[in-house]
Amino acid sequence: MTWARVIRGLLCAQAVVLCAYVVMLLAPEGARPGFLRDEVLNDVTRFLPALAVFLRGVRYPADRAWSWLIAAGIGSFAVGDVVFTSYVAHQDPEPFPSVADIGFLGLYPLVALGLLMLVRHDAGTVRRGAATVRRSTNRSVC
User: Fold this and answer.
1) What is the DSSP letter of 48?
2) Burial (Cβ within 10 Å: 0-12, 13-18, ≥19) of residue 75
3) Which of the four, 39, 51, 67, 95, has the lowest number of CB atoms within 10 Å?
């Protein structure tokens, strides 16, 4: 099995899970199991993209730094959501701030660093591509 198939399979699984999640959101209150929607499907919709982005870094070593940072950010948010739905939401009163907020807030610096690294990584590619276009355009004018 190739990496492309694994990642494509994860993205297809994500699409199926998201469709099931939307159906559960639109279903009447008594017709759907709340646990399945709120704790299972909700968490899976967060972990699958983290896994797909992580595997991007495994497959393409040049993209490893930025993809693993973004995957860690998405995973951090997913862990915060699991902690919230399984522990914090059942406390009375719900504490604020809570332990789950560490995971939620972990998303921002990790994804910001990952996106910054992605932009810097791609900027070199764009500059080389622009220089090539400029050289080829200059030749055609002369």
Assistant:
1) H
2) buried
3) 95
Question: Looking up tokens 């959501």, which residue turns up?
Answer: 81
Its domain, for residue 52, covers 3-141
Helical spans, DSSP H, in 1-99: 3-26, 34-35, 42-59, 64-86
Whole-angstrom distance, CA of residue 39 vs CA of residue 30: 17
- Report which residue type is found at 127: R
User: What was the pLDDT predicted at 134?
Assistant: 53
Domain count, the chain: 1
Instruction: List, for residues 121-134, the tens digit of each pLDDT value.
Output: 766 654 554 455 45
Q: What are phi and psi of 84, to 5 degrees?
A: -65, -50
SS3 at position 2 = coil
